[in-house]
Write a structure and sequence with these properties.
The complex is a heterodimer of chains A (294) and B (47). By secondary structure, chain A is an all-alpha fold. Chain A is built from 16 helices and two strands. Chain A has one domain. In chain A, strands 1-2 form a two-stranded antiparallel sheet. The chains are: A mainly alpha (294), B mainly alpha (47). Chains A and B meet through helix 3, helix 4, helix 10 and helix 12 of A and helix 1 and helix 2 of B.
Chain lengths: 294, 47
Amino acid sequence: MAKRKGGAGRHWFQAAWFALTNGYMAGFLKGKIYTGSSKSLCVPGLNCYSCPGAVGACPIGALQAVLGSGTFRFSCYVFGTLMLFGVLLGRFVCGWLCPFGLVQELLHKIPLGTKKKNLPGHRWLSWCKYVVLALFVILLPLVTTQGVALGDPWFCKYICPSGTLGGGIPLVLLHEGMRWSIGLLFYWKMFLLLLLVFLSIRYYRPFCKYLCPLGAVYGWFNPISVYHMEVDTEKCTRCKGCQTACKMDIPVWERPNSIDCVRCGDCQRVCPTGAIQSGFLLKKKRDIPHRDIS
Amino acid sequence: MEAKKRLAQGMCLLLAVILIGAGTFREELRVVFMKASNVCMECIGLG
């Protein structure tokens, strides 16, 4: 029987990773953010660096910061880091290491209304994350730096719900002065956050499926990432139980390394024959030489 | 197929390390640190 992964253990792993990368407790008490040298290093998931507990930098925020700095037209460091995480882990990051992914999953567990996998128009909406990546993360921060000092981090400023949840709300609650700065932008970001909260209760990971630029990048690496999934074609009965169980709606039996797979392991748990495996080094049946016993 | 995948993995890993090295050499980390160690008012919706 193949080793079954995920489940409640995955949520504990996600929580532990969240605690590790947001472990600056004094920040939550004093309303200050961490300023240690680890802030120059990117964490793999979408984790706002303005969260009082954050000890690392969000790669999407870092990318916009470098592109919008006016000094660099390309960020070797951030693209290299994204490539490194991507080729090693792929979207394992989304399923196991992203704090906002954990938030959406916990919201989806709230027993309210009927649960659905996808929003209406799922196929078209799935392309939005690539538009967000190209336009809000790369092009607009790059273009708007011309002539002026610093470009705006467009994705962080107008879209990112992680910044509102992890940075905006705690800092506004802890600083009276910041409360006076609340304006239209804050209300817009709160509206987006609340919309995603309500959508997450009914639909599985709507932000990851339709808006997350980080998931879009890591998804491209899923087919070649070192952490991968495999289906034993001899054991697989094509019952499609994996596809039914998959909340990302992937035909796992057919495409185990789909760009949408967040490696949650639900398919492995439901597979009646244990045909699905995931890991870094998987022992392949065809790689084992046949021993001649005659 | 498997050999192609391994080659792609190796090439990507090598490129990633080169890019990180180049970024460090170009002092991009300083820009990231400057941004990440100050409260980003835009990120929290107050900018």
